[in-house]
Specification:
The structure holds two protein chains of two kinds.
Chain A: H1 3-54, H2 57-85, H3 89-100, H4 105-113, H5 122-131, H6 138-141, H7 150-178, E1 187-191, E2 208-211, H8 214-232, H9 236-256, E3 265-270, E4 303-304, H10 331-340, H11 441-452
Parallel strand pairs in A: 1-3, 2-3, 2-4
Helix pairs in contact in A: 1-2, 1-3, 1-4, 1-5, 1-7, 1-9, 2-9, 3-4, 4-5
Chain B: H1 3-10, H2 13-32, H3 37-49, E1 53-57, H4 63-74, E2 78-82, H5 89-93, E3 94-100, E4 106-112, E5 119-123, H6 130-133, H7 137-142, E6 144-147, E7 150-153, E8 159-164, H8 177-181, E9 185-189, H9 194-204, H10 218-233, H11 239-251, H12 270-275, E10 276-278, H13 282-298, H14 306-317, E11 322-323, H15 325-329, H16 334-349
Parallel strand pairs in B: 1-8, 1-9, 2-5, 5-8
Antiparallel strand pairs in B: 3-4, 6-7, 10-11
Helix pairs in contact in B: 2-3, 2-4, 3-13, 11-13, 11-16, 13-14, 14-16
Classes of the chains: A mainly alpha, B alpha/beta.
């Protein structure tokens, strides 16, 4: 075999090993891309599920959007990075040079392999490089078969595996917290004066049952009217936000499979300031005007009426007949109502004119709703849904508050700060407007001059 | 790699011969010059790379002795010019004088100056005026001298070593950038250490002076050196390493001096933009590659490695970098700039 042929064979072997190094490096780069992409996708999906189970629709939407965006950016970045790090033959040779401490021999051989004219030192270089071939075997240059990007993927999987139980645990805790107050799940009480009624978050499903006396209900109705007016003046951006919330809620429900109407919140509404009327009272809406009984056909959340038991009594709150309305239901009674789903006894129903028979605790509403009596839907409590000015298809009551153990005891009146008037001392006089008087003739010129300045 | 193979490769004639000759010259020089190993290696590298050297050092550090010793070791013709303020270009290049011929006719005849030799030592070159300093330009770049319209070639190998005294700057003329750029390397000679100083004392104050044995025979010296210089040029360079050298040189240039569309250098050094007025020229890149080739040969390789470039970069680039006033006020020198550039370059290639 001639000398040149032998040199060519040696060169071919050197180049073959460089190709091997390159293949191994590119395989690892591909693995890295796959693992990193999977890790990002799984992480983003996990975060979205966790947010769906843990947060309100809007926060869920924001968190999920950020997670998805971060995943997309990460995948793009990773793709760019892997593309940039993809080993060309020259890059593979340079890497092999570095790792095998070949001091540029492989890169030089590769660069000059196809050159038509080589220098007199070329055979020396080939011989020298060939003699060191053990140093740059692919398995020595890159011993790994599996990319280190497997660790982020495993971490991502572990995170997701932990996130799901944590989310479910969180849901369970919230359910337990909402069931504070004598073991009656979801029951609480609130003062009408503390109630901030705003247009409902369209993402929230109606899930509250509210009990109150007629006067309080009237106040509530006034507030509803005010809130509805506010709703009419909402901007387009707010409406778009509502749509986003609605979308988020639907998506969230699909993700976590939650039925929000499963455990409706039972709230007793009280009034710590029975004499005061709300600002919306003069909007021309009198809840008692319709005066028609209105059963709760769907049994969903709504305002509890004060009618006779059995859910068939006419509820005409605020019609002026009967004794003056009570400020709140007796605590124990209201709790029983909420627990048993029955209407209060007639004796306690001072705001309704139909309180002519005692309540029958066993006469639950047959349609399986709250079962405490008719007319408990706030949208139709004061008359037929079509006739009343308060209701609309898109208007719901949403309680944007988490029940808390730190709340006052059931039915206790809200703290009202006392009015304090500090008496004036002997040198002080109450402010009084000055009486008009004619200007003295002598001063007219002076005053005129002053004002002309 | 097995030992047998290593030995076989090392015994290949050309590279082994080069390394042997180089080490031998080095050893002869170190008979006289104590210490300064790096300076001697850079000096010889410049010689075999075909460049010239600027030697900077305080008085008494052996600049002139080093150059003289080199001349003796190589057994080549050697001239020394002491540059002074009143030195004229004709004193270096030579001039035409009226000569009487045998038949009584008078005619102009060219009298070669001290520039006509193989090894030229320009001592304290910064003491001459720029006009005189520039008299060396043509000789250094093109190996020829033009006097009165006539061009006279210089015999290869031609090697100029100029010394600079960094102190006593009064009455000196800093070298023009054009001339600085023509020196392949700038070699620094610092003060020797204590042990080296003791050896210098004992070797120079005794009755016997250390003798330098010429490495080459007078008749073959020039030819041998030229042969080795040609061999250096045969060293192979991979394109990534050429690109690395180019990036390194570009990194010494401040961003505002780069051409439009070429502002995004892969190697960006903040200090360069802050302190450098003008970076290294393309000659700097050539110096990097040529110096690295010599380094590779000394290491028994027929190819350049990145480390070779890094090792020659300080000597090849420092004198090509023009610093601004901010650098002088902040006490930043070119050495620091080149260090930063090399550091950034290493990071970029990792």
């Amino acid at each position: 075999m001639s000398e040149s042929r032998r040199d060519e064979q040696k060169l071919w072997l050197i180049l073959f090993q460089i190709k091997g190094v390159r293949a191994r490096l590119n395989f690892l780069a591909l693995q890295r891309w796959v693992f990193a992409t999977l890790a990002l996708l799984i992480g983003a999906i996990g975060i979205a599920f966790f947010a769906a189970a843990s947060f309100t629709p809007l926060i869920f939407l924001i968190v999920a959007a950020i997670a998805v965006l971060a995943a997309i950016v990460g995948i793009i970045r990773e793709t760019t990075l892997v593309r940039a790090r993809r080993a060309s033959p020259a890059r593979a040779a340079t890497i092999a040079d570095d790792r095998a401490q070949m001091q540029g021999r492989l890169a030089t051989v590769l660069a000059w392999a196809e050159a038509p004219q080589r220098t007199t030192l070329w055979p020396y270089l080939v011989e020298d490089t060939y003699g060191r071939r053990e140093n740059y075997e692919p398995s020595r240059v890159e011993p790994r078969w599996l990319s280190r990007a497997i660790w982020p993927l495993l971490a991502s999987l572990m995170l997701v595996a932990l996130a799901f139980p944590a989310a479910h645990l969180g849901q369970g805790l919230r359910r337990n917290r909402s069931s504070f107050g004598g073991g009656q799940p979801g029951q609480t009480s609130a003062d009408i004066n503390d109630l901030d009624i705003r247009p409902a978050d369209p993402a929230l499903q109606p899930n509250a049952q509210i009990y109150a006396d007629p006067a309080t209900l009237k106040k509530l109705a006034d507030k509803l009217v005010a809130a509805e007016n506010e709703e009419r003046h909402r901007s387009g951006l707010a409406k778009m936000l509502d749509k986003a919330r609605q979308f988020a809620d639907t998506f969230q429900n699909k993700l976590n499979g939650l039925d929000r109407n499963r455990n409706p919140l039972r709230m007793r509404l009280t009034d710590s300031k029975p004499g005061q009327s709300s600002g919306a009272q003069n909007h021309g809406t009198n809840p008692g005007q319709s005066g028609k009984p209105n059963g709760n056909p769907n049994g969903g959340g709504g305002l509890a009426n004060n009618s006779q038991p059995g859910g068939h009594g006419a509820a005409e709150p605020g019609n002026g007949q009967g004794p003056p309305p009570m400020t709140s239901l007796p605590e124990q009674l209201a709790d029983e109502l909420a627990k048993n789903g029955t209407s209060p006894p007639a004796g306690s129903d001072q705001g309704a004119n139909g309180a002519n028979s005692p309540g029958n605790p066993n006469d639950a509403n047959a349609d399986g709703g709250a079962g405490h009596g008719s007319g408990s839907d706030p949208a139709s409590l004061f008359g037929p849904a079509s006739a009343q000015p308060l209701g609309s298809d898109s208007f719901k009551i949403a309680i944007e508050a988490e029940p808390s153990d730190e709340a006052s005891s059931h039915g206790s009146p809200t703290y009202v700060p006392p009015r304090i008037r500090v008496p004036l001392n002997s040198q002080q006089y109450p402010d009084q407007p000055l009486a008009r008087a004619t200007v003295p003739a002598d001063d007219e010129t002076t005053i005129k001059r002053v004002f002309e300045r | 790699m097995n030992e047998a193979h290593s030995a076989a490769v090392a015994e290949l004639p050309s590279i082994a011969d080069f390394a042997r000759t180089f080490r031998r010259i080095q050893a002869e020089i170190h008979k006289v010059i104590i210490g300064h190993e790096q300076a001697v290696e850079e000096l010889l590298s410049a010689l075999f790379a075909g460049g010239h050297v600027l030697i900077e050092g305080v008085p008494g550090t052996g600049k002139t002795t080093l150059v003289k010793t080199l001349g003796l070791a190589l057994n080549l013709s050697f001239n020394r010019i002491q540059f002074t303020v009143d030195l004229m270009p004709a004193d270096i290049t030579g001039t035409r004088v009226i000569m009487s011929s045998v038949d009584g006719r008078r005619e102009f005849s060219f009298q070669p100056g001290p520039i006509f030799c193989h090894i030229l030592l320009g001592d304290e070159i910064n003491r001459a005026t720029p006009k005189t300093q520039s008299a060396l330009l043509e000789a250094m770049a093109e190996l020829q001298v033009t006097v009165s319209g006539t061009t006279y070639p210089l015999a290869p190998p031609y090697f100029v070593m100029a010394t600079l005294n960094p102190i006593e700057m009064e009455g000196t003329y800093p070298l023009p950038e054009a001339q600085l750029d023509r020196f392949l390397f700038k070699v620094r000679l610092g003060y020797p250490g204590e042990a080296e100083l003791v050896r210098i004392i004992s070797s120079t104050t005794g009755p016997e002076e250390a003798g330098v044995e010429p490495v080459f025979e007078p008749a073959e010296a020039a030819q041998r050196i030229e042969g080795l210089k040609r061999l250096v040029r045969e060293v192979l360079v991979a394109s990534p390493i050429e690109q690395y050298a180019a990036r390194l040189v570009r990194a010494t240039q401040p961003a505002n001096s780069r051409v439009i569309g070429d502002l995004h250098s892969p190697i960006v050094v903040d200090e360069v933009n802050r302190y450098v007025s003008f970076g290294a020229s393309p000659r700097g890149a050539l110096a990097l590659i040529l110096g690295a080739k010599v380094r590779a040969m000394l290491d028994g390789r027929a190819n350049i490695a990145y480390d070779d470039i890094d090792r020659v970069a300080p000597a090849a680039l420092e004198h090509r970098i023009m610093l601004n006033y901010a650098a002088h006020s902040d006490n930043v020198d070119a050495e620091h700039i080149v260090e930063q550039v090399i550091k950034a370059a290493r990071t970029s290639r990792a």
